[in-house]
Amino acid sequence: MTATLAIAAVLLDGLLGEPRRFHPLVGFGRLAEALEASWNPSNARWRQGFGARLIGIIAVLLLLVPPTVLAAWLASIPMFGSVFGALALYAALGLKSLGDHADAVQAALAGGDLAEARRRVGYMVSRDTSDMKPEDAARAAVESVLENGNDAVFGTLFWFALAGAPGAVLYRLANTLDAMWGYKSERFFHFGWAAARLDDALNYVPARLVALTYALLGDARLALSCWRTQASGWDSPNAGPVMASGAGALRLSLGGPARYRGEWHVRPALGRGYQPGAADIPRALALVRRGTWLWLTLFVTGGLISA
User: Fold this and answer.
1) For the segment 37-93, what is each residue's pLDDT rounded down to a tens digit?
2) Each residue of 169-204: b (16+ CB within 10 Å) or e?
């Protein structure tokens, strides 16, 4: 049943993409934004230290527990539960959306429209894009595809396979909170601590399975070597293995300095090979898509074995 629902959700995502109106993740993001503005104001005396972390923990629980419990209840309803499971996973997946964003960057670069490429890649990454060269835009798009392949596709499938609809809902909402609050800035260093740590915990196993998936579907020897020698230097314990393995699998050189909010950040090199160009964006997408179907095949195989 898990495999059938997962395949149905992936097909729905490919056919329909993200809901254009009333997307649950968009609504959740607005709720989280309003709660953070109220509970973490710039003049709050508790903004630093344990008090801010405690408030952040309460905020995470308040935002995640009710929808997860609701998803568990809806999934338990006879007949309707299976339909809800497929729809919940569909709403949590972002494979087609990831492809649409990446394709737009690739098309702009291929057409020589650097301004449009910068604008489009700005939808995918949080770094500054205003002064990007074509190779910078291509690198940012490839990195985003590899990293978000884990967040928007594989991690969601993993938790759906492990815990059904409530697992997928919990994972995707926690991932959204991390994207909003998981920064080491003054504003979020303490308040966003719980969101960042929860996302790290939920992604620990999926990220390493994704790194292995990328290796198996690309240059396996180089991917595994890059994973082993480069991943620990990345600031994220889960993005490091995913991106290092993905870069090696594609034989690309990723990472390096990037500017965030006007400040340059030194990032270690990832992968080995040539600098990415526009043509490498669809290569990265193809790697994620092949990995998705490999996982679905394994779901089907596992279901047949356990039947």
Assistant:
1) 988 887 666 667 788 899 999 999 999 999 999 999 999 999 899 999 999 999 999
2) bbbbbbbbbbbbbbbeeebbebbbbbbbbbbbebbe
Position 44 scores a pLDDT of 63
Query: Tens digits of per-residue pLDDT, 201-250?
Result: 999 999 999 999 999 999 999 999 999 999 999 989 999 999 999 999 99
Give me Rg for the CA atoms of the chain: 19
* Domain residue ranges in the chain: 2-306
